[in-house]
Each structure stands twice: as structure tokens, then as C-alpha cells.
Write a structure and sequence with these properties.
- The protein is of the alpha/beta class.
- Strands 1, 14, 15, 16, 17, 18, 19, 20, 21, 22, 23, 25, 28 and 30 form a 14-stranded mixed beta sheet that branches.
- The two termini are 40 Å apart.
- α4 packs parallel to α6, α6 packs parallel to α8 and α8 runs parallel beside α9.
- It is 22% helix and 29% strand.
- Among the domains are: 119 residues, Golgi alpha-mannosidase II (Immunoglobulin-like, Sandwich), CATH 2.60.40.1180; 117 residues, Jelly Rolls (Sandwich).
- The chain is built from 12 helices and 30 strands.
- This is Agarase.
- It comes from Seonamhaeicola maritimus.
Length: 648
């Protein structure tokens, strides 16, 4: 883990200022309710013969985890509710109330659950495409939701009224905690735009127009009875804005935002890495890596942030209600620790990016289920992303009790992190960094976006007079074995009594160093970050032609730092290093972007991050960008500005 030679870590430097708080739009703490979550609710899938007698307490309290999302409750009730005899195509409200009363009474009897309601403050619920999309599909009672679409009954009215009464009846005020967020429908584009219609302008636009109308109608109906519930969408599976030279952005997300407007309280998205996707382009089967983590994910978030700011004058929050990995090669096989490792390593990397956007991310929920016995394959293999497995599933173990799968390593790794965010920086965008302090403890978090082991120099700054007592290190990675599927993730833990300056971070590894000092750590300064957005976005690239945008009303203090972020989408082989002038001065553009090369993606889409000299900054700034070749777009222009304010 630790490098022995000073010269071994000369290139990569990480500096931590424990006494300087880092605040983003007033947000300055690690919010475990937002970030350390699981895709589960309080009641379903916890029962069974567990090795731990009180599995909720062991997991939720033991690792300080918060409940995130469930999509089965709404669906289950709609499939069994009766039709209103006087309103064909609408649910019988009296039956919804009856079912809600029965569910509430059952919940009240289970008093052992009530203490966990504090872990449900940000709960997300949502509907599945079927049975909520009105297309004639009937429920178990033999009726279907109304497909009427006119001024008196806009498309989706029956769906919205059912959801509104469900929330009101199943979560009565003062009895059961109401969900904070509701996603109208889960991943609708799979059904609305079949493969043969993808990229076809008329087909895509028409589908999104209908979907947007549906979302707006449902949201309005929900708000009539539940004005405090936040409604959002469109719960997109793979938001590949850059496809078809950004026509995917135009047809789908841009149009959805324009049409739904203020009816949506938040945007809902899913992000997945594809570390082993099948590829038949060469005429024979091979596997490719299509990563989100790193620059691509940053660019995607910046696109939604900037367009939201340009359209509404504010950033609408984003709920990332699923993220981690689609492990195509290992999807439908028996449980394996290697597949769990793939989930955890991508979740670690994406979480670091979400943590770096606290002003726009409302929730981030890794797609880690509990047992999901409903998801077994026809061969009998269990669902792929489960927190629990049975003992016999691991080689060398026997018994059928439920125990933790290796997905628990995500929660074990992050179990202790809490406190105020403090200043940390790396001289390479391939190493993600975060740091927090909580009284006498400091947490330094490092993630390696590359597939190579990385040595680095770590400089943790803390004023004299507060001696270090120990460092506890958790290092998550997968030791190498020649056969890939035989590898598994581990958390290598060590406790040191002395400081260290040289470390090695394993390939795609995550390390959390917990420093314990003799006395509480004092905050002596604050680095206040504000992210500014350009006045224009999404500009086509033409060889030798300047793309100009402005970033205005920038607040500049006495001590200031800034990073310009340029989102670029281009075909492979095109230049990713434009000439950039900032207020007329040509500035140096780095030749690196965060993460591995995007060679296996359809095209490059990512953010280029450029440090800006403080002397170049003005309240109103003009940025010009010029490429030597044509093709693609400059998608976004944003700038992070950090003003350092001393406590005294």
C-alpha cells in the first residue's frame, strides 16, 4: 500500500487543508441521508432466516445507512384495486382508502419498525411503465387506466388521481412518514421508443411529447392532494446526450424540460458503467468498456445544470435513483464476488462525483437491492445486485441462512465518514478527492479513476499544537488474479501510529484515511465555492471559428481560485485540446481529462477542466474557444470560483 521511495510519488500530489472549510452554495457537510443509501424501503425483503437476528439494526444502524427508493408499492396496489363503477378507467377511491387503512393498521402493529423512520426522510417512490402508462393493459381486476386525452381530461389524469389518493391514504399525516419524492414512471423510453425508432426525429419527438404531457398531468393531480410531495421525471435509464451528434439531447431531455417546465420539481436519472459489454462489431464476440465515471458523468451533470439555469434561472435538483454497473458479461450467472466488486468500484467513483455537486444532487441511490427473489433467471440464478445472499452461494460455505453479499463493502468502506467538508486538491483529475472533519477526526477520501496503481504524495496540513494519535486506513480494491472472474474486492484495513506522506492507491481503488488528533480540529478559514454558468451552450464546432460565451456577475474576493469547465462532445480522432482565450489571454489547456479514455464509447463526451489564474478573472468574463477541425459541439461552459475567507 505504501511507497518506500520518495521519488516514487513525485508526479501526483494531494494537499489537504484541514482548517479550511469548503462550502458550496452554503452546503458544507457530508449528508449521509443523501449519499449513503440503499434501494429499499423499511418493510419489504427484510424477513427470512438471517444469520444476524436483527438485520435491520445490524445494517441500517451498524453502517449508518438511509433508505432510498422503492417502486413496488404503487404497482402492487394498482394491480389489485377495483375500478370506480361510475368512472370507467379510474380507480375506486373508497377501495384505495380501505387498502390504505389496512396497510396503516398493519404498520402500526409493527412497532419495531417505527424507530427507523428517521432513516426515511428522503424516500423516493415511483411507478413502473406497466400498469401506469394508459395503453389498455388491464390489472388483475380486469380494467385499465383511462386513455382519454382532451381538455377536460388530459392524458394521464387517471394515473395521477390514483397516485394522489395512494399517497394520501397509505401515508396518513402523523401516522406514517410520507415519501419526499415521487417519480412518475420508471424508464419509459424503453417502451415508448423501440430500438428501430431510436434516432428517428419524428418518432422520438412524438414519444417525448406524449410522455411530457403525461408527466405534467400526473404531477398536477398529485399536487392537488399532496402539495408537499416533490414530483419528478423522466427517470431516464441512460442519458446519452451526445448520441446522434446531440440530437438525443434535443429530442429527449431538452424537449422534456421545455414541455414540462415548472411541473417537475426535480429531474430523475440513472447512470451506469458498462465494464464488460458485449460487442459483435468485429464479427466475433468481444467485450468493451463504456464508462460513465469521470469526465462523462461530469459533462452530463453540467449539461442539465446549465440548461436548468438558463431556462429557470435556478438549478433544479437531480435525483439519481439508480447508479452503479450493468455487468453484461456476468449478468445472468450464479453469484460471484467479482461481479459485486464491479458494482462497488463504480459506485465509489460515481459517488465522489455526486458529492462534488452538492448544490444540484438531491439524492444518489446505488442500485443495490435486498434479496429480490422475484428476479431469479429461468435457470434459477438469483438477482444480480443484492445486499444479501445465502451462505451456500459462496464457495467453501454451507447453509441456507441469509448473509451479506460483497455489496456490503460499499457501506463498510463509507461507514464512518461524516462532518464538515474541508479543502483538498489533487494535481491530476484522475484522482478524485474529498475530505471532512468531525471534532477530533478527519476523513481523507481518494479514488483512482485509472486502471493502474498510482503512487502519490499526501500532504495533510494541520497547525502545530494538535498531535496526531493514529491513522486508520480502509483501502478497497481487487487484488490481481490471472482469471478475471476469480478476483474479488477486499477492504484492506491498517492502523498506523505515525503520519505518512507516501501512499499507493490500487487500480480503480478507493481509500479512506481516518485521522485521529488529540484535540478537535479548528476551522480557521472558509473556501466559498460558487459555480457560474455561461450565457449560452451547445454550440457546433467549425474549424478555425471562435465559439464565444460569457460568464458574468462573478464575485471575486481578495484570495480567489477558479476552474473553467468546458463540456465537449466529438467523434473519436477529433481534437480535444482547443485554443482557449480567457478575457483575451491565451491560456494553457491540459491534455488530460478525468478517467480512462472513452475509446469504447460511441464518441467522446466529457469535461475539460482548466485552472484560471486569479489575475485573469473579472466580474464579467468572455471566453473564446477555437478548434483546428470541424465536428461535434461545445456542450457547456461553466466555472467554479473559490473565494478564501479568513475567520478573522
Amino acid at each position: 500500500m505504501f511507497a518506500q521511495l520518495m521519488g516514487f510519488a513525485q508526479d501526483i500530489e494531494v494537499e489537504v487543508n484541514l482548517n479550511t472549510k469548503h462550502s458550496v452554495n452554503g452546503i458544507d457537510a457530508f449528508d449521509r441521508e443523501k449519499y449513503i443509501t440503499i434501494h429499499a424501503n423499511l418493510t419489504n425483503d427484510w424477513s427470512g432466516n438471517h444469520l444476524h437476528s436483527d438485520i435491520r439494526s445490524d445494517f441500517l444502524d451498524g453502517y449508518d445507512v438511509y433508505l432510498g427508493r422503492e417502486t413496488g408499492g404503487l404497482t402492487g396496489v394498482l394491480r389489485t384495486v377495483k375500478e370506480d363503477p361510475k368512472r370507467p378507467g379510474f380507480a375506486d377511491v373508497s377501495h384505495i382508502k380501505s387498502l390504505g387503512e389496512r396497510a396503516t393498521q398493519s404498520y402500526q402493529r409493527h412497532t419495531e419498525l417505527h424507530g427507523y423512520e428517521r432513516r426515511m426522510n428522503n424516500m423516493v417512490i415511483g411507478g413502473q411503465f406497466h400498469p401506469f402508462w394508459p395503453d389498455g393493459n388491464t390489472n388483475r381486476k380486469g380494467w385499465a387506466l383511462s386513455q382519454t386525452s382532451n381538455d377536460k381530461e388530459p392524458f394521464g389524469t387517471a394515473t395521477g388521481q390514483f397516485m394522489a389518493h395512494y399517497i394520501k391514504s397509505f401515508f396518513p399525516k402523523g401516522v406514517r412518514k410520507k415519501p419526499k419524492y415521487i417519480e412518475v414512471i420508471n424508464e419509459p423510453m424503453w417502451d415508448l421508443v423501440p430500438r428501430e425508432n431510436r434516432g428517428v426525429a419524428l418518432k422520438e419527438k412524438a414519444a417525448v411529447q406524449k410522455m411530457a404531457e403525461f408527466h405534467s398531468t400526473v404531477a398536477k393531480e398529485i399536487k392537488k392532494l399532496n402539495p408537499d410531495v416533490l414530483v419528478g421525471g423522466y427517470t431516464c435509464a441512460f442519458p446519452d446526450f451526445e448520441l446522434y451528434d446531440f440530437k438525443r439531447w434535443e429530442y429527449r431531455w431538452k424537449q422534456f424540460i421545455d414541455l414540462t417546465g415548472d411541473d417537475m420539481d426535480f429531474w430523475s436519472l440513472h447512470f451506469y458503467d458498462f465494464p464488460c459489454k458485449q460487442n459483435y462489431n468485429s464479427g466475433k464476440l468481444s467485450y468493451i468498456k463504456k464508462y460513465r465515471k469521470g469526465s462523462n458523468l461530469k459533462a452530463s451533470l453540467d449539461m442539465l445544470e446549465q440548461y436548468s439555469m438558463m431556462t429557470f434561472g435556478k438549478i433544479k435538483p437531480m435525483v439519481i435513483s439508480e447508479y452503479s454497473v450493468q455487468a453484461h458479461r456476468y449478468r445472468d450467472i450464479a453469484w460471484t464476488p467479482w461481479r459485486d466488486y464491479l458494482y462497488v468500484k463504480s459506485a465509489n467513483a460515481m459517488l465522489m462525483t455526486f458529492m462534488d455537486h452538492p448544490q444540484s444532487i438531491a439524492m444518489a441511490i446505488p442500485f443495490f437491492m435486498l434479496k429480490s427473489e422475484w428476479g431469479r433467471t429461468k435457470e434459477g440464478h438469483p438477482y444480480r445486485s443484492r445486499l444479501f445472499r445465502q451462505q451456500f452461494e459462496k464457495e467453501g460455505e454451507t447453509g441456507d441462512q441469509w448473509v451479506y453479499s460483497d455489496l456490503v463493502k460499499f457501506y463498510q468502506l463509507w461507514s464512518d465518514v461524516k462532518g464538515k467538508r474541508v479543502d483538498i486538491k489533487s494535481n491530476t483529475v484522475d484522482i478524485q478527492t474529498e475530505a471532512y472533519i468531525n471534532r477530533k477526526k478527519a476523513y481523507v477520501i481518494l479514488n483512482n479513476l485509472t486502471e493502474k496503481k498510482v503512487p502519490m504524495h499526501l500532504n495533510v496540513l494541520n497547525p502545530t499544537g494538535n498531535p496526531l494519535k493514529q491513522i486508520k486506513i480502509k483501502h478497497h480494491y481487487a487484488p490481481y488474479k490471472p482469471i478475471e472472474i476469480e478476483r474479488e474486492g477486499i477492504i484492506d484495513e491498517k492502523v498506523l501510529k505515525a503520519n505518512l506522506e507516501l501512499i499507493e492507491l490500487e487500480a480503480e481503488g478507493t481509500m479512506i484515511l481516518e485521522y485521529t488528533f488529540k484535540k478537535p480540529i479548528d476551522i480557521l478559514a472558509t473556501k466559498e465555492e460558487v459555480k457560474y454558468y455561461a450565457d449560452s451552450y451547445y454550440q457546433p464546432i467549425e474549424a478555425g471559428k471562435e465559439i464565444v460565451f460569457k460568464i458574468n456577475k462573478v464575485v471575486i474576493g481578495k484570495k480567489v481560485e477558479a476552474v473553467l469547465r468546458i463540456g465537449i462532445g466529438r467523434d473519436h480522432g477529433k481534437s480535444l485540446r482547443p485554443e482557449v482565450r480567457f478575457n483575451g489571454t491565451k491560456i494553457t489547456v491540459p491534455d488530460n481529462y478525468s478517467g480512462e479514455p472513452q475509446t469504447d464509447r460511441e464518441r467522446f463526451y466529457g469535461v475539460i477542466e482548466i485552472p484560471i489564474d486569479a489575475d485573469f478573472l473579472k466580474p464579467n468574463n468572455e471566453i473564446s474557444i477555437k478548434f483546428p477541425d470541424s465536428g461535434g459541439h461545445v456542450a457547456t461552459g461553466t466555472m467554479r470560483v473559490f473565494n478564501l475567507i479568513d475567520k478573522n
